[in-house]
Amino acid sequence: MYLIDTNIWLERFLDQARAEEVSLFLDRIPPERLFITDFAFHSIGVVLSKLGRKDALLRFVQDAFIEGAVSPIHLEPEDIQVVARMMEQFSLDFDDPYQYGAAKKYNLTTVSFDSDFDRPLEEEKPHQKSNNTERKVQTYPVQKARASFQRPCAVRSKPYGWL
Questions:
Q1: In whole angstroms, what is the distance from residue 128 CA to residue 163 CA?
Q2: Is residue 153 a part of any domain in this protein?
Q3: What is the tens place of the pLDDT at every residue in 104-148?
Q4: What is the reported pTM?
Q5: Which residues pair with 111 in a beta bridge?
């Protein structure tokens, strides 16, 4: 089960450099194994709105949620304590600890290009940003074991229309 970070969805929506890699990944994972946080969904809406891509947002909602099986998830107010602690401990903005907290709560593997997920965030040391500028799609379960997204997965019979 995978929590797909905002930057993965946007990579494909905006047809950026790694869009094909994202498409291959999404085509290999059944949609009922994909999750998105409410925060990521709203962030996607804001970005696509600012870019004048309302059509892409509507197609995404139709394909992923109405006709598809991507599951939206959220954190409860009491879960924000973990988010706030991580923001302070690792000097992170709100978004990454929110994603991390959701992945931990729902026992999901995070898929992201964000370098803030390049190492486990449960360490006691303050978080240091990676100097590596090359982005890689990597998956990190909250339990600290890495999983390669290149492993064989079931292929969806109908790819998303917004991809």
A1: 34
A2: no
A3: 899 999 898 876 565 555 534 444 444 544 444 444 443 322 333
A4: 0.72
A5: 4, 139
